[in-house]
């Protein structure tokens, strides 16, 4: 791979822009396979196909509600007929709705009973646990509400929400962010104030552990479960912590001072190696999570608040999607993309082998033809000598035989040298 292509792939490029939204976007989400993207906000919700850029029609219920959060589920047991994308929407009124994607009609359908609450309490945070690949197992959905309640449900491919638990960790604990812990299957809940992180048991919702070493304001939290870290947005910046003990690791510094201490969303990307956060000045910022250095500024068309941020990691590319979040203003959803580069060592091995093999084949082919001719002549000569013991060999024939022998030995020696050199070169290449 050329150095120019490698340098180009180091930065994100503008992939597409979805226009037409007329109010603030509060949440953006991309399906796990990168096929669909949703923007939810004060206008309701809008869904697009990220492959052909077509928009999907939502039912009237989804368009009229004021949405606060969104997430994707993908049921896939290996058969196209039973594969299903499900969009989970949380509203400002406390409702949670599941909409199934009909890929033939290019719309979403409300085939499942929604979850409604008696009191109007905003869905503050929402997270999903994807069903296991290759079977029809249940997915899980967890949500936190403005009245400090955390609820968890299961959802099957063709069923409705089934409540698993409903709990209130503490009266003063406002679970601003909830998410599933992948290894233990339990639920992590981060308090908006007080620097508290609570681990809830996955079946009962009981508090397993509670640590209070985080920063006092954690308005948005994203967890990197591979390296046991989380990044928190405080309204004045983004800060990295150890999720095991909440110890501070580093801050992500940049030259943009916020106009107002309004917390923007922040999330991990590229398998935890990057951190992406929004600003209130029309930019999204990409940091290296290990060094804390700013790597790229992604400028948006307006200088308004960029609150909603999400990422998606695929086998061949990375996505970053952001959206404008200024109330009463048009909001574009902008998607950036970066191709994943392959390992240079693997590329060099393949190219060097392909260069060495034709040389060996050419030497081998010419030498074999010459060797066959010489062996045939020697065989005929030996047979003639054995059949006629008294045959007198003339000096001219002796001179010709010496010439053939020397030429054969020269060719054979050259072939051995080239073959040995090629073999040694391939061994060195495979070693490094």
Task: Describe the fold and architecture.
- This is WD40-repeat-containing domain protein.
- InterPro entries: WD40/YVTN_repeat-like_dom_sf (IPR015943), WD40_repeat_dom_sf (IPR036322).
- Keywords: Membrane, Transmembrane, Transmembrane helix.
- The chain crosses the membrane at residues 368-386.
- The protein is α+β, with helices and mostly antiparallel strands.
- The chain has two domains: 10-339, YVTN repeat-like/Quinoprotein amine dehydrogenase (Methylamine Dehydrogenase, Chain H, 7 Propeller); 344-431.
- It has four helices and 28 strands.
- The strands form seven sheets. The protein has a four-stranded antiparallel sheet, with no helix packed on it. A four-stranded antiparallel sheet has the order 2-3-4-5.
- A hairpin with an 8-residue loop joins strand 6 and strand 7.
- Helix 3 (344-387) runs antiparallel to helix 4.
- It is elongated.
- The model is unreliable at 1-8, 343-365 and 418-432 (pLDDT under 50).
How is this structure best summarized?
It is built from four helices and 28 strands. It has 432 residues and is an alpha+beta fold.
Write the layout of secondary structure elements.
Layout: H1 3-8, E1 13-21, E2 25-30, E3 36-41, E4 44-49, E5 55-56, H2 60-64, E6 67-75, E7 84-91, E8 96-102, E9 107-109, E10 123-129, E11 139-145, E12 150-155, E13 162-167, E14 175-180, E15 187-191, E16 197-200, E17 207-211, E18 220-224, E19 229-233, E20 238-242, E21 248-252, E22 266-269, E23 274-278, E24 283-288, E25 294-299, E26 306-313, E27 317-324, E28 331-339, H3 344-387, H4 395-431
Antiparallel strand pairs: 1-28, 2-3, 3-4, 4-5, 6-7, 7-8, 8-9, 10-11, 11-12, 12-13, 14-15, 15-16, 16-17, 18-19, 19-20, 20-21, 22-23, 23-24, 24-25, 26-27, 27-28
